[in-house]
Every structure is written in structure tokens, then in C-alpha cells.
Specification:
single chain; alpha/beta; FAD/NAD(P)-binding domain; D-Amino Acid Oxidase, Chain A, domain 2; 5-stranded parallel β-sheet; cytoplasm
Length: 374
């Protein structure tokens, strides 16, 4: 295939797509709004699954590099009741299929695997349109434009490419994270460090949860989960860290202090991370030469599959383009049909899990889910 693939967005989906295209000898250019790879923090840990995310890594020919990024022991899991009682505990014996890596390290691995110049930094998209004679044109904030034979929106939740395909826009999913970090936890936050253990912690209750993970070194990264409206969060002044911490902590009155310490002892200002989602099972009619990958195609509230699906999208689209040289439409149609089914299955599974998580029997039902999966 001689066609050039234009990719908007240098996140995991766009970079995986570019890398697998490179493996097949298909040229691609990635346009990214950020000015450099270091401009923005890339988030925390990702568990990359052997049934989807790792398949993308294999297609990219980067399994050896990936294994070098894995943080040993981080697949360990603990589930605690709000009073601190340990309900479930599972060690990481090295045989699991969901190894943990830092998102920033994974992105760096993909960037370093691409030829120099593949990613064009500092290109913020201001508009995308179809041309009367066919094809498309992308306009950037600096006034320059780009085209190509295939346009792929890998530009996340608020994709500028998505309107070419569908009028669907993300809506608030009803839950939010409040994100905190504890540094040097084994010496400065010992009770919280002991509660989290060597891997992940979930402390669930109806409408409120605390999720934490031990990242590289002895950093504890916490997501306090609240099932509240955006108006509820708007009443909190997140520019005042102390007041914010005190307000959120009131929602966990009576919880064990080693759990609430993950919030009250934070070494960073709490950050509100609202969750948005596209309509479950979203599809669109085929538009020549244009498609979406990752959150641009199937944004969902956090469900443990997002990064894995986004990487698999990129790999599968690249493989389809390689399998149909000279027939872009057949390739994209094949990719989209499989992607629609794949993402809908995750939507369905997530709906079942969320119904189970927020019913009265929780956290016992969550323990039953983990035990049943062993």
C-alpha cells in the first residue's frame, strides 16, 4: 500500500497504529497538539492484558521492550471493607496475564520505536473537512494544513475528527475520580502503605470507593471514586487543596484511618477527574477514508480495558490496511465492524459490573467476582 495515513493524536492508540504501520512498511504521519512528549503528565499505572493490549504489543514487535517496563509484584490485589477488614488478598506470583507498567514508559517505548519525524509536535487541530473532490483537509492553529489518503482520529474524548463520522458527543457518566499521590509512602505514610500492600487496593462501598496502587518506588497513587453530579463537584473549590481534602474526607466519615489517609495525607493537591462516555454501542455509517481509534471511537468511564482496547484498535487497523493493499475502504470497513463488536462487548460487561458494584451487598459481591475469576 502506497497511501499515506494521517493520524491525529500521539496517545497510545495513535502511536500503536503508527508503529504497526511502520512494521508493515506503510507510511504514516502523526500530528499532536502538545509541543513535546514531556509537556503533560501521562497518568499512572496500566495493566496490559494478554488477551488484548499485549496482542497489540506483539503486533508492534515490542514484546521484549515491553517486558523490560513491567513493575514486578504490582499484580497483587487487596480488597478491604471500609472499616479496614481484609476481605480478599491475592499475591502476584508472576503467572498473571495483566502485568503493570507506567503509562509514560509505555508511551515512550512506542515513540522511540518510530522513525524520526513521524510525530509532528505542536500541531493543534482547529478544523477538519471533507474536500469536494474527495479526501480531507486538516487545519492547524498555525494556519498550516495536512491531507492524506486515510485520516484517523486518535485524538481522544473531544476528537475533532469524530464529527466527520457521527454527531455523538461525550456526556458525563455520573462518577468522578479525585486523584491524590503519596510519596515515600513506606517511610512517610506507613499505615496507608501497609493497607495498599505491594500492588492494588480497592475499598468499595455504595456510591463511594477508594482505589489505590503502588507505582514505581514507594509512590501510592489514589483515585477516590464518587458517584456525584458535576454540580456537586462545582461547589468544591479545588484551588484550595486543604478545603477540598477536608470536604471530600467528610464523605468517608467512619472509614478506617489507614484508608482515609490516602486522601487526607496527600502530597499533591487533589485533582477532579470527571468521567465522560460516548453512547454505549456507538456505530456510524462508513465515510470514505476516515475512521477513529481509541477514546475517539468508544470513550467509556474507567473499566480496566480502556488502554488495552485503544492499543488493540491501532494494531488491528494497521493490520487491516496491510491486508488490503490498494483497497482502503475494505480495510477500514473490516476494522470498524470488529471494533464495534469489541467495544460493545466491553460496554455490556461494564454495565453488569457497575450494577453489581453499587448495590447494597457490596463489597462482598466484589470479592465474589474476584474469587469466581480465579
Amino acid at each position: 500500500m502506497k497511501a499515506t495515513v494521517t493520524i491525529i493524536g500521539a496517545g497510545l492508540s495513535g502511536l500503536t497504529l503508527a508503529r504497526v504501520l511502520h512494521v508493515y512498511g506503510i507510511p504514516a504521519v502523526v500530528y499532536e497538539a502538545e509541543n513535546s512528549p514531556e509537556e503533560r503528565a501521562q497518568g499512572g499505572m496500566l495493566d496490559i492484558h494478554d488477551y488484548n493490549g499485549q496482542l497489540a504489543v506483539q503486533a508492534a514487535g515490542l514484546m521484549e521492550e515491553f517486558r523490560g517496563l513491567v513493575l514486578e509484584g504490582r499484580e497483587a490485589m487487596r480488597i478491604l471493607a471500609p472499616d479496614g477488614t481484609v476481605l480478599f488478598e491475592q499475591a502476584d506470583d508472576g503467572t498473571g496475564g495483566r502485568p503493570e507498567v507506567q503509562r509514560a514508559d509505555l508511551r515512550r517505548m512506542l515513540l522511540e520505536s518510530l522513525p524520526d519525524g513521524t510525530v509532528r509536535w505542536g500541531h493543534k487541530v482547529t478544523g477538519v473537512r471533507r474536500l469536494d473532490e474527495g479526501g480531507h483537509e486538516v487545519t492547524f492553529a498555525d494556519g498550516t494544513t495536512a491531507g492524506g489518503d486515510v485520516l484517523v482520529g486518535a485524538d481522544g474524548a473531544w476528537s475533532r475528527v469524530r464529527p466527520l463520522l457521527t454527531g455523538a458527543i461525550p456526556e458525563y457518566a455520573g462518577t468522578s475520580f479525585v486523584e491524590t499521590y503519596l510519596y515515600d509512602a513506606d517511610t512517610r505514610h506507613q499505615a496507608a502503605a501497609k493497607a495498599v500492600g505491594g500492588g492494588a487496593l480497592i475499598a468499595p462501598a455504595p456510591e463511594r470507593e477508594i482505589h489505590a496502587h503502588r507505582e514505581s518506588g514507594d509512590t501510592l497513587h489514589t483515585y477516590v471514586v464518587l458517584n456525584e453530579t458535576l454540580d456537586w463537584f462545582a461547589d468544591i473549590d479545588f484551588t484550595d487543596p486543604a478545603a477540598t481534602t477536608a470536604r471530600i474526607a467528610r464523605e468517608f466519615d467512619g472509614w478506617a484511618p489507614e484508608l482515609t489517609a490516602l486522601l487526607t495525607e496527600t502530597d499533591t493537591a487533589p485533582v477532579h477527574r470527571p468521567h465522560y462516555a460516548l453512547p454505549a454501542g456507538l456505530r456510524w455509517d462508513r465515510v470514505p477514508g476516515v475512521t477513529l481509534v481509541g477514546d475517539a471511537a468508544h470513550l467509556a468511564a474507567p473499566n480496566g480495558e480502556g488502554a488495552n482496547l485503544t492499543m488493540l484498535d491501532g494494531a488491528e487497523l494497521a493490520k487491516a490496511l496491510a491486508a488490503h493493499p490498494g483497497d482502503v475502504e475494505a480495510a477500514i470497513a473490516e476494522y470498524e465492524e470488529a471494533m464495534f463488536v469489541r467495544s460493545a462487548e466491553v460496554d455490556d460487561a461494564t454495565a453488569v459490573l457497575r450494577e453489581r458494584e453499587f448495590r447494597e451487598k457490596l463489597p462482598r459481591s466484589l470479592v465474589e467476582m474476584f474469587v469466581g475469576s480465579e
